[in-house]
């Protein structure tokens, strides 16, 4: 490591304490308190390099980021990022098939790690034989992913331990079979490389992805409201401080992204359907087509902040049934009316929450935040005194950059890191 700032690593192994002093590159200090299979440990570092792993759905993603500073003043630089999407493989099923997603994660995650380390100039071949105990432990850990076990053992045995300080991995929410691949892979790296492992909430990652800009996690004014819209979630979340979340609104049935995909399927569009709906709706606006159809705006006037999109989806189904065969113009008009309906509900609920909670900052996040029309109406219809953050389009979907940001946020909040055995996949993990 370079230059003159101090890095101190203290690990307590049973009754013994082992101290290391190494140099690193910054003048900002942060620490991790963690428990691993050895017992209690603490890392105090002036700068941290974090390996992040994301496998919650159908994207295998790995990133390496460099971060330092305290909450509200975090420098965050992406050193490398890799992502492999399975969308084309799941197209024939019209949605994500969990068993296939798990298999593809297990097959691709090891070469993706090597690729990411190589991008960050951290990959170095070396003869690094694992001990018999390590091999036995990894074999038990990866007993359900034999292909992954074989690939990982070969990789670790021929790779020098990289200069990393922590590993962050998505623990949920998501598809549990897919989540477990990433978690067990991260545990294996933590065991062999003796690096603390930080479980991360995927939804917190989506919040922070909107704040990643100019090699920093942008400071925000509280209270903050986040609208998280994806294939699995539609949530309104109030933040009164960093890492303090209150969910004030949730979908009672389908998430908005799920509704987009289901309506797309009704219209004969390919998976993933959300972008296809958006393209048709945009064509209807550009061509100034008439608006002959009227769909409901579910729960738009209720006193709470919950959502429901199942009824809207059903209304589209009945409209298509009654219409019979659809022309291309019909599909464009229906897509536009559906998108208008969903967008108007999201906007009105958000505006009411902003007023009730005296919100200073608004964050839009999640995969559906890539939708051009939704981005436009929020950019043009929210109160002008509200500071708004929308992620770069490349960060709207699932990615490991946001997991690195969330991992470092956990470190900076000085939360105690769980033992490896306590880290589990939770498909319904809540903020």
Q: Would you kindly provide a written description of the structure presented here, covering whatever features stand out?
A:
- With 431 residues, the protein is α+β, with helices and mostly antiparallel strands.
- The protein has twelve helices and 16 strands.
- The chain has helices at 87-90, 98-119, 132-141, 146-157, 176-193, 202-209, 256-266, 273-286, 310-323, 328-356, 372-381, 401-412, and strands at residues 5-13, 16-24, 30-36, 39-45, 48-54, 59-70, 73-85, 166-172, 197-201, 212-213, 216-217, 224-229, 234-241, 244-250, 361-365, 387-389.
- The strands form three sheets. The chain has a seven-stranded mixed β-sheet with strand order 9-8-5-6-7-11-10, sandwiched between helices. A five-stranded mixed β-sheet has the order 14-13-12-15-16, with helices on both faces.
- Mean pLDDT is 89; it is low at 1-29 and 36-41.
